[in-house]
């Protein structure tokens, strides 16, 4: 999963170096932006295309699943075609497919576009980091990591805010159109500034059977999770078939990959206790984090009357303190036990989610904003040491595979969490509504009083129904925050299963 060594690579210098670095980092920024800009846009997209919000969420999950599938292919692509060539093709492909997404007139067309966007966007993130390290002189390797990390942190800030402003002011299509000129210009700059740089290729074998099994079980499982709530789960023959395919496909994938000489996903790395603990922590913690990022803007827009813009502000501000705390956390990780930093970070994320359980229908924007703003430093304490802890637990020749596998699990966990949290949210809302109606003994009297005061009966019934629905959704949202908090607390204990690293860990592979 790594590119060939570049012993004869000549680092860039001066203005050419900085321009090339910014152009490469912009590619990473666009991919991170694309994974967050759609979160606040889902209600607008669903309304525009005439589908439910749960169907609109496929815009998020289809991209994430496709991106996850391409992560294990990054090393093969680098060896077979060259890291630089692959990066440039994906860069321009990102522009072309963004145009396709923006022109979509149906949810089916948009989902196909998002799948293609995930396929070309997936390799950009790891390859951008690889290329930044390649073009900088060895003594400036830290600067390369800082540039890459900053674009990764800025994306979650800009994404929700920009998505909200665009949806309210221009139209949802422009969340895709706006990335086209950036990708075209950035790709062109990379071509011209890296001209003459070596981009070696070599023999590369791809595990075709492993890849096919990977696509099979992940695709079946994700479709099952997305469609289950609409098909009454296992009462549906379609869901039953998907479940069987997912289980058999997963078991076949595990057995085959453990016996394959050059597997597409090296599952043998799980023999390291430290890697297993760190990777599961990464997946579980990110699933909880991404679930909260998905459900918060949906609730604000659907039930609290927020526009997409203000929902974006409420979500995006978490990155403000993250930027300022990143250097501090990075320095602390080199001196302190990374397991402690990781555990505290996850517990902090859980505490901020638990804080949201105090929300009610009268909560102001400022009350909403405080826990989101304070999430930033804890988010950095989670993301910065976790991949480094995973990598530090394996042998040097397996570190690239470890980084790829941990990020694959993280991306996949985010996609699954998006489906699961929305299913749980909808089920909790229905349950709460039934409970509220059962407990409301004076409903008929309230309607009678409203009619006596001159309100038409149908209006009185609709008004009371709306109040009950809003309160049931509020309670369901608090239920989901409680579940997410529990997941965070459980994940916070996992890092301590890993052995303490013998020295400072490499944090350059974070995110």
Any overview of this molecule?
- With 511 residues, the protein is mainly α.
- It has 3 domains: 1-196, Up-down Bundle (Growth Hormone, Chain: A), CATH 1.20.1250.20; 207-263; 269-511, MFS general substrate transporter like domains (Growth Hormone, Chain: A), CATH 1.20.1250.20.
- Helices cover 76% and strands 0% of the residues.
- It is built from 21 helices and no strands.
- The protein has helices at residues 14-37, 42-49, 53-56, 58-70, 74-81, 83-102, 107-121, 124-135, 141-169, 174-177, 179-193, 208-228, 237-259, 273-303, 308-316, 318-335, 338-355, 365-392, 399-439, 443-452, 457-493.
- Helix 12 packs antiparallel against helix 13 (237-259) and helix 15 crosses helix 18.
- The two termini are 17 Å apart.
